[in-house]
């Protein structure tokens, strides 16, 4: 078996590849549904309905999509420059904790300032916390050649333990009946609801705006060009005069900041405080979303909504027919692998010989 | 200080060290085999989850313990074959393929667990491996046969890698696949074989947890052990003997933090002790980074006739 590069890649094929891959994944996953002893068509119908079938479903899906779009953007920015940031989970928690540290209830850890001043400070602190967390691994990679995948992965565990220590200690909510939960955010720092009676909040506007900003950055700025050059070939880019270290540092700061903001926006828009289970792996799902989107910032919005819909729909479906919700994680992970293969097949043709 | 000496003088401490080290030895050898052939395998974390689950499920369903270990190895091998297909066959990014396999293997295991035990809150247990009390070697005789297997695999894999034509082929495809191909070695077949064998070891690493260290399957039971194996391989400079040393040193610190945490007079939050293993892994990566001699073709896909 060998791969032969196709002379030209059709744009239609490239756009259809993710859809075909997801359909293929759903077909394979049907076997798992059968194993659980549930009717396949009804299960999938319930999954779709639970994720996209009503105003309530859409509101839940979009709420869930907000952190996913942001961590998806974080992965996109980093992966474009071949900086494999697998630490978005930790960066999200660091951002959430920083947000509370600035904007926690008075008497908690926050400051008694005007919300007009405090809100930008809170977001800035969260972005900075996430950014700084990725700076170390990025520099270690660039200067010493330490593989950033392993360091960012290990830092996730360290951050979660650190957050746990803070929630048991200095930032613990004394009224939480012993639950490891942080003090609450000042109510005037909370993000407004986008639709009354639902949980969708203005964080969605943040996520979509940031996707557009990242897209414009890639397309129209020198930094965007440098990022693509470093991602394509770091050595070559260096010879061609691209400031490689500066680009990698910028990418690390930007990627970490996006993941940090995801944490702050979750706190300000949804939870109001930090707990150790506020993210069911948004950081890792962000990687999948970035790949599903082919590292396209606007595609990340679509992929984020799709993955959120599958996750939300799985909850509803599981209650109705008893297929474990983990089916959603299987579909998401298998979609990642099939999209990679499908995208490859748009560029190469497999010759059996 | 005397506390520390008391801990180190206690045989029970060293029994714990060896027990903590065992899955790391299996896992590190597994990663080492893949990387020596030029392929990073970040699927390890998920493959360990899958091995822990399927090995345990087989024994729970009535299979003998060793069959359970075999099932775990087979599970690992299947995921290894998938990784080989994606990275060797299709030349996809080794990072992304490995992470995808970790996510997939973990999700499949959790799904399988929930389908098999829909309404169970306390995980069902099996009778795990018994300690090798017949063995006249202290500390080792408090371990199970899987630990002995892990210890024996170290010299075996070292011998195969450095003293046999097969090992030479594996190292060649990891260092210079063009040259290997010129010598008539099939790069694709050798890499696939190494990944499948390495992944089987990762599966056994997981099964050790459910069939020897514990007697049940828990969510999050691997808890980053796989990533630590990836770090240990760098620390070991891709040598099996040093991998054993690294795993034991690492387990020593891990066991030590457990004791310090339990000794009651801990002044620091317990989470800080739990951070130590991860901090040590990063430190090890940084310390050896300068002189790390990565297999030259690691993470470089190879296509026949392309440079």
Shape of chain B: globular
Strand order of the largest sheet of chain A: 1-2
Share of helix of chain A, binned: over 70%
Distance between the termini of chain A: 6 Å
Order of helices and strands of chain B: HHHHHHHHHHHH
* Classification by helices and strands of chain A: mainly alpha
Rg of chain B to the nearest angstrom? 20 Å
- Biggest beta-sheet profile of chain B: none
Task: Catalogue the unreliable spans of chain B.
Answer: none
General description of the model:
The complex is a heterodimer of chains A (353) and B (307). The relative contact order of chain A is 0.22. Chain A has 353 residues and is an all-alpha fold. Chain A is 71% helix and 2% strand. With 307 residues, chain B is an all-alpha fold. Chain B is 70% helix and 0% strand. In chain B, helix 7 (165-175) crosses helix 9 (187-213). Chain B is globular and about 65 Å long. At the A-B interface, helix 6, helix 11 and helix 13 of A face helix 4, helix 5, helix 10 and helix 12 of B.
What is the strand and helix layout of this fold?
The complex is a heterodimer of chains A (353) and B (307).
Chain A: E1 2-5, H1 11-35, H2 40-52, H3 55-80, H4 88-103, H5 115-144, H6 148-168, H7 203-220, H8 222-232, H9 234-239, H10 244-271, H11 282-292, H12 297-321, H13 326-347, E2 348-351
Antiparallel strand pairs in A: 1-2
Chain B: H1 2-9, H2 11-36, H3 44-60, H4 65-89, H5 94-116, H6 145-163, H7 165-175, H8 177-182, H9 187-213, H10 225-235, H11 240-262, H12 270-289
Helix pairs in contact in B: 2-6, 2-9, 2-10, 2-11, 3-4, 3-5, 3-9, 3-10, 4-5, 4-9, 6-7, 6-11, 7-9, 10-11, 10-12, 11-12
């Amino acid at each position: 078996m060998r791969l032969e590069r196709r002379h030209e890649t059709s744009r239609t094929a490239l756009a259809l590849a993710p859809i075909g891959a997801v359909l293929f994944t759903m077909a394979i996953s049907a076997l798992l549904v059968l194993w659980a002893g549930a009717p396949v068509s009804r299960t999938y119908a319930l999954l779709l309905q639970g994720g996209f079938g009503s105003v309530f479903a859409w509101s839940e899906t979009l709420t869930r999509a907000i952190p996913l779009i942001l961590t998806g953007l974080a992965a996109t920015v980093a992966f474009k420059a071949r900086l494999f940031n697998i630490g978005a989970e930790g960066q999200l928690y660091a951002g959430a904790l920083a947000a509370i540290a600035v904007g926690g209830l008075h008497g908690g850890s926050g400051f008694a300032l005007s919300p007009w001043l405090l809100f930008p400070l809170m977001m800035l602190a969260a972005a900075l916390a996430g950014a700084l967390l990725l700076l170390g691994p990025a520099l270690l990679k660039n200067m010493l050649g330490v593989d950033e995948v392993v360091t960012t992965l290990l830092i996730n565990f360290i951050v979660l333990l650190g957050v746990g220590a803070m929630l048991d200690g200095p930032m613990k909510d004394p009224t939480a009946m012993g639950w490891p939960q942080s003090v609450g955010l000042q109510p005037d720092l909370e993000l407004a609801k986008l639709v009354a009676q639902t949980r969708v909040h203005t964080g969605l506007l943040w996520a979509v705006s940031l996707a557009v900003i990242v897209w414009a950055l890639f397309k129209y700025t020198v930094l965007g060009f440098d990022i693509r050059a470093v991602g394509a070939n770091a050595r070559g880019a260096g010879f061609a005069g691209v400031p490689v270290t500066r680009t990698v540092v910028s990418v690390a700061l930007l990627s970490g900041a996006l993941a940090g903001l995801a944490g702050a926006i979750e706190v300000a828009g949804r939870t109001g405080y930090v707990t150790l289970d506020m993210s069911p792996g948004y950081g890792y799902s962000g990687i999948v979303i970035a790949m599903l989107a082919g590292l396209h910032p606007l595609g990340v919005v679509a992929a984020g909504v799709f993955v959120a819909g599958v996750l939300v729909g799985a909850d509803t479906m599981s209650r109705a027919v008893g297929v474990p919700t983990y089916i959603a994680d299987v579909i998401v992970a298998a979609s990642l692998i099939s999209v990679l293969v499908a995208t490859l097949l748009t560029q190469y043709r497999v010759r059996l010989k | 200080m005397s506390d520390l000496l008391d801990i180190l003088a206690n045989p029970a401490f060293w029994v714990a060290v060896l027990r903590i080290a065992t899955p790391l030895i299996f896992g590190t050898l597994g990663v080492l085999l893949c990387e020596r052939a030029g392929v990073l395998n970040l699927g390890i974390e998920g493959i360990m989850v899958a091995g822990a689950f399927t090995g345990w499920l087989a024994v729970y369903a009535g299979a003998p313990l060793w069959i359970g270990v075999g099932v775990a190895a087979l599970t690992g091998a299947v995921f290894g074959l998938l990784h080989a297909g994606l990275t060797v066959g299709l030349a996809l990014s080794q990072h992304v393929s490995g992470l995808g396999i970790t996510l997939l293997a973990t999700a499949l295991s959790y799904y399988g667990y929930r389908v098999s035990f829909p309404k169970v809150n306390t995980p069902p247990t099996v009778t795990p491996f018994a300690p090798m009390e017949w063995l006249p070697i202290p500390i080792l005789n408090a371990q199970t046969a899987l630990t002995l297997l892990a210890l024996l695999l170290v010299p075996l894999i070292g011998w195969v890698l450095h003293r046999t034509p097969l090992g030479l082929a594996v190292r060649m495809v990891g260092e210079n696949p063009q040259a290997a191909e010129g010598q008539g070695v099939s790069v694709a077949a050798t890499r696939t074989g190494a990944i499948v064998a390495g992944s089987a070891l990762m599966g056994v690493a997981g099964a050790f947890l459910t069939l020897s260290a514990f007697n049940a399957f828990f969510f999050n039971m691997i808890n980053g052990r796989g990533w630590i194996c990836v770090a240990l391989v760098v620390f070991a400079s891709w040598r099996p003997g040093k991998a054993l040393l690294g795993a034991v040193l690492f387990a020593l610190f891990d066991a030590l933090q457990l004791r310090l945490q339990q000794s009651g007079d801990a002044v620091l939050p317990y989470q800080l002790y739990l951070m130590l293993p991860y901090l040590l892994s990063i430190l090890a990566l940084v310390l050896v980074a300068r002189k790390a001699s990565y297999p030259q073709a690691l993470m470089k896909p190879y296509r026949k006739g392309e440079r």
